[in-house]
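4.2 Preliminary Data

To establish feasibility before requesting continued support, the project team ran the inverse folding procedure on a target of 679 residues. The structure was first converted into the token representation described in Section 3, and no sequence information of any kind was made available to the design step. The complete token record follows.
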């Protein structure tokens, strides 16, 4: 028994060093490569082949009996073997980063000298060294970017990555070179319109990528961004939905656009209502503005005027392409817009539109006819047929819908409220050449045989002799043009319509008004202010307590004037809202556009433009006019000022004219600005 017990003890003692050696050997094997150079920090154990090692590491002989995962250059045969943003050097058969080096020049080397562009110079550190590269700023946590830029795969871009397209079998790397680079990779043969092939991880690019997990996918392109929004804008309050609607003109693409804001000023939606071609090429993200289409459509949206009568919203506007008045109605679903031409077959009409709604809920429009077309019946002009051809007859026109949801021109009753014939311009109807040989522009027959006419001259027959005359090109697009109905502003008292407008002759304006009864029969025009060159940009409103109020600019005195009367009548002495000279020695043109609005408590406010200092100003009438602190003084703002109360706040929209630097060049960047004031 003793012998047996002793044998067991000796056996256990013999095993003890074996067990201890096994534990130590496991530790030693897992750390076998710890002291080797350039070893993979997450894999210190010995390796058998490259499959044991991570990205950018290979299994190499560290000693005669030990293989370790050590750092190695990325080998390649083609660009597809490299990380996003790398090129394969065919001679060295290694991958090298492709980037814009900004070590010399900083942001200026990135085409961004003032730091306001999208590419900025930053240091970049990888396993080899630290360099300075042009990179895009990241989007914020909500995917937002500064104005004028869009979030694409986590980066803020101001233009399309890689120009918006890559060939089949290639993916876009936005930061690899100026404007991006299409790199060969295992990508889809094609992406849907408005999408581009790119990499799954566009943040860890160049040599810092994990090539084994990198893949290619189709990503929607950034949304289209217009560089010219905000002009010809008009604001309307939607009390039912506690929203503010602002119509505006997209001057880059020629479209009517309507923005919808919450009562906190948050942009809720932006609708491209009219002007986008139905079958255009999708160049930008299809879920964004214009459906991503950049092809031009008809040029529409200037001189817009907006109004809301729930459940409908309305916008009237000018069609430049066809010289016509157009109308848009937002349907009760709050999303769909119906657009159509109201007038324009017999005249160039639709400039200076003003939209209002009568007591029966019917929308109506006052607008200007710049010239008659073939078929214009001058016998409908009040006061007799104006002399001269139809092309020289201007008119103030009025169109009232026959139902709250008009669907075509047939749903409008149109009348001519006033007419004015213009004198024939120099060389009107000339079939030869309009030129000045020294005694003023005249229509001459075309001649030949002149010795040497300059580039601005033409050879004409004057006095029977070939003579060089300076070619004269009279403009038919003078702005503002002469005529009756310029700068019209419409308001209703029940079903009776009131229109304030300017009558211009020889470049000088006078302020007039006229009324139309419930059956759209116009009364005789009334001169409201005939002193100076006046009547610009009127804003006519009905006083809730009765009567009419009207603001307008007097160009001669540079002041914003105010008219108040029980109805449209002559002989009323206007008040002055702003003289344009707030301080001694300071002179400004004020009231270039203005908006009157009554608060819920009945106080009357005026929001208006200071065209000299490019500010939005405010004034209140209690009981006389007094200025309030300026509403907006940052940047060049105040153009096309429009406003209305929603709840207890006055909301004011205007256009901001601006230019920004993009890739080293100044670029137009006009935008719509919405401000509010709580009395």
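Position-by-position output of the design step:
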């Amino acid at each position: 028994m003793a012998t047996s017990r002793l044998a067991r003890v000796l056996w256990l003692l013999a095993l003890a060093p074996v067990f201890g050696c096994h534990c130590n050997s496991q530790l030693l094997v897992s750390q076998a490569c710890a002291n080797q150079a350039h070893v993979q920090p997450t894999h210190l154990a010995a390796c058998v082949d490259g499959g044991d090692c991570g990205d950018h590491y290979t299994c190499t002989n560290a000693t005669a009996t030990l293989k370790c995962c050590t750092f190695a250059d990325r080998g390649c045969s083609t660009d597809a073997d490299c990380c996003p943003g790398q090129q394969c050097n065919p001679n060295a058969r290694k991958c090298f980063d492709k980037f814009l080096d900004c070590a010399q020049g900083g942001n200026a080397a990135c085409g961004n000298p003032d730091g306001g562009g999208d590419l900025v110079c930053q240091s970049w550190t990888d396993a080899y060294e630290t360099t300075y590269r042009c990179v895009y700023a990241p989007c914020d946590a909500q995917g937002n970017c500064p104005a004028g830029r869009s979030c694409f795969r986590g980066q803020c871009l101001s233009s399309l990555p890689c120009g918006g397209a890559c060939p089949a079998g290639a993916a876009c790397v936005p930061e690899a070179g100026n404007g991006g680079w299409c790199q060969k990779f295992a990508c889809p043969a094609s992406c849907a319109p408005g999408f581009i092939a790119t990499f799954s991880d566009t943040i860890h690019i160049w040599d810092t990528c994990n090539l084994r997990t990198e893949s290619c996918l189709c990503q929607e392109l950034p949304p289209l961004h217009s560089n010219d929004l905000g002009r010809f804008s008009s604001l309307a309050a939607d009390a039912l939905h506690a929203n503010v609607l602002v119509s505006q003109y997209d001057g880059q693409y020629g479209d009517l656009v309507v923005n919808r804001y919450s009562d906190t000023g948050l942009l809720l939606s932006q609708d491209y209502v009219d002007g986008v071609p139905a079958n255009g090429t999708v160049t930008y993200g299809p879920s964004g503005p214009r459906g991503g289409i950049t092809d031009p459509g008809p040029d529409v949206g200037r001189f817009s005027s907006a109004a809301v009568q729930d459940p409908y919203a309305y916008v009237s506007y000018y069609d430049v392409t066809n010289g016509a008045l157009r109308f848009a109605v937002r349907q009760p679903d709050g999303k769909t817009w119906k657009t159509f031409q109201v007038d324009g077959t017999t005249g160039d009409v639709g400039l200076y539109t003003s939209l209002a709604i009568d007591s029966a809920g019917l929308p109506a429009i006052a607008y200007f006819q710049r010239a008659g077309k073939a078929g214009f019946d001058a016998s409908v002009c009040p006061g007799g047929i104006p002399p001269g051809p139809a092309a020289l007859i201007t008119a103030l026109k009025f169109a009232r819908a026959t139902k709250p949801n008009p669907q075509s021109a047939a749903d409008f009753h149109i009348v001519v409220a006033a007419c004015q014939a213009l004198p024939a311009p120099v060389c009107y109807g000339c079939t030869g050449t309009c030129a000045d040989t020294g005694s003023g522009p005249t229509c001459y027959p075309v001649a030949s045989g002149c010795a040497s006419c300059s580039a601005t001259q033409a050879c004409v027959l004057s006095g029977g002799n070939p003579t060089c005359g300076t070619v004269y090109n009279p403009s038919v697009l003078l702005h503002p043009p002469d005529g009756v109905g310029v700068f019209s502003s419409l308001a209703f008292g029940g079903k009776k319509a009131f229109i304030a407008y300017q009558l211009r002759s020889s470049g000088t304006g006078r302020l007039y008004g006229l009324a139309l009864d419930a059956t759209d029969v116009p009364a005789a025009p009334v001169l409201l202010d005939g002193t100076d060159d006046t009547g610009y940009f009127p804003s006519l409103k009905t006083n809730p307590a009765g009567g009419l109020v009207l603001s307008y600019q007097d160009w001669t005195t540079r002041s914003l004037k105010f008219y108040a009367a029980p109805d449209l009548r002559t002989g009323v002495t206007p008040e002055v809202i702003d003289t344009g000279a707030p301080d001694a020695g300071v002179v400004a043109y004020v009231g270039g556009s203005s908006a009157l609005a009554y608060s819920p408590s009945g106080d009357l406010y005026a929001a208006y433009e200071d065209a000299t200092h490019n500010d939005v100003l405010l004034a209140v009438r209690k009981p006389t006019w007094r200025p309030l602190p300026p509403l907006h003084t940052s940047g060049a703002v105040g153009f096309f000022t429009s406003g209305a109360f929603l709840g207890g706040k006055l909301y004011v929209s205007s256009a901001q004219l601006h230019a920004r630097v993009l890739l080293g060049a100044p670029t137009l960047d006009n935008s719509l600005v919405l401000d509010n004031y709580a009395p």
